[in-house]
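pinned: reference chain
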Amino acid sequence: MMVQSINETEIKPTNLWDAAQSQFQRAADAMNLEDRLRVILGNVKRELAVNFPVRMSNGRTQVFTGYRAHHNVNMGPARGGIRYHPDVNPAQVRAFAMLNTWRAAVVNVPFGGAAGGIVCDPRGQRSGRAMTARELENLTRRFTTEIDFIIGPHADILVPEVNITPEIVAWVMDTYSMHHGHTVTGVVTGKPLAIGGSALRDEAGGLGVELVIEQAARLKQLQLAGATVVIQGFGNTGSNAARFLHDLGCKIIAVSDVSGAIVSQAGLNPLQVERYRAQNGTLLDFPDADTWNENELLELPCDILVLAGLENQIDASNAPRIRAKIIAEAANLPITVEADDILRDRAIFIIPDLLANASSLMLSYFEWVQDLQSFFWTEQETRERLSRVVVNAFDNVVAMSEQHQVDLRTAGLMLAISRVAEATRLRGIYP
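pinned: its structure tokens
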């Protein structure tokens, strides 16, 4: 059999760890965090890189590289996403693990931060060949086996991210359960309902974006009925956010996904767009809409821009041309540090990923709790708990922002860092 390796030159270099560090240091400066805690919280606890063979459908064997990192676990087990994407790399994983620590702490959930993924091209966007279902299953089961010793419901809970389907989540749970001799539902969240998933599993991310946009609109005295919205990243979170905002009376004037972007100043019905994409496999040529590229879409004049795609979407080159009044970061680190400063100087109101992604984390926490108790809540109970936590977190961050005269991102980090720092201070250093 021939053995192939992933071409490392296809990995796009990023500065996400530098960005996460910059955000952390800015908040640490604002709160006068002591040096001892800066050193501890400014580093990841552990990192794992694995190279493993997978048998492909053509009979060949291909070696893939996967990563998992834990940032801090002083408040509880690590929890964070996995993604299958050509650009997965150690700096990205490290940065997302740190971000997930702060994201849990800002809503006061007993989780630490983790992140991971596999360098692969499941949709064939770079290679021109999509991976088959059997290849994805082999990839998932082997990766789960490789990281088995650092994951678990009391050690590290995995969460679906980019290109992770419900089937992949089920394979993760089944593989881990087979290794341990009994069903372990709590090792991963985002599961189908039949195997321990939670109500609102699919809608939580979009619902949370809608909730924080409602709070921001109230704060900025923006009338949502008739407000124009652009959705960059019409995946699970973006499409559900579009649907919830459309139900509030917002006008969705543009959406984009990996196939391209469509624009209609008359407004798009999100459900019709989803049905069209399901039938045609693309957004392009949607009736009564113009086709644009994604970069142009970001610069459309609008009241609200939802960034629900990948990281580094707005940087110093396009930040001066962004014409949204409110930006909701539904993705991880979609705005670079340089762009963040430019947008803030231009008085564009940014809802940071710490808040815009809070509902996804909370739903993950709810599912984990329900799995551990084997007691499941109704959709109404889940929605009420979710709404209460997200709105409370937003209000707490706004209060911190006003108290210290800092932007929401820095305020959210200050709140989160103070909680993790206190737990770290109380636990001390062993031995």
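why pinned: Residues 204-356 form a domain with the Rossmann fold fold (CATH 3.40.50.720). Confidence is low (pLDDT under 50) at residues 1-14.
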